[in-house]
Amino acid sequence: MFERSDETLIAQALKGKKSAWLTLVKRYEKNLYNYALRMVNNPADAMDLMQDIFIALFRNLSKFRGECPFKNWLFKIAHYRCLEYYRRKRPMQSLDDVPEQEDEESVCLEKNLQIQQQSSALLEAMQHLPVKQKLVVELKFFQQCTFEDISQQLGISTNTAKSQLYSALDKLKLHLVDDQIIKVGVEYV
Fold first, then answer.
1. Domain RNA polymerase sigma factor 70 region 4 type, which positions (predicted)?
2. Are residues 112 and 178 in the same domain?
3. 36 and which of 41, 49, 90, 168 could share a cystine (Cβ 3.0–4.6 Å)?
4. Residues 150-160: what's their mean pLDDT?
């Protein structure tokens, strides 16, 4: 069976086809939830944020012009929703609460525990980054965006995206006990 393109699904969803909208949601819900979880570091808030992103997507779907890949456009919406989240929650957010992450795909419990500890350490270290740097790290390592994609999504120059990433990596090194956690943690989160 073939997979329908995002553009086909969007066109069908705009015509009122519910199954096309649900396929689009299913295609991106895991990525958006993981993105939101890494940004807000709280499963309940991540779920709420993901729902806000999909509501915003539903309301703005007709505005998608295809000038960039749909995924980039979707994560730009997610970026703005994350900024709104930080503006609303900033005074109440605690950097001390780091939920444990479970890796259900791992068959080796010891490796799972190691990955979990490294992921938690990385997530905790990311909470010390300014929001813009956290977004650049998220887009580069977790969404595998190019610097050009990052600059388009965040409305900054490519050089600014690079400098924010390198600044963020320097700050992460200060908060992590072992530099290897950055390499291993990003690989498995």
1. 121-172
2. yes
3. 49
4. 89
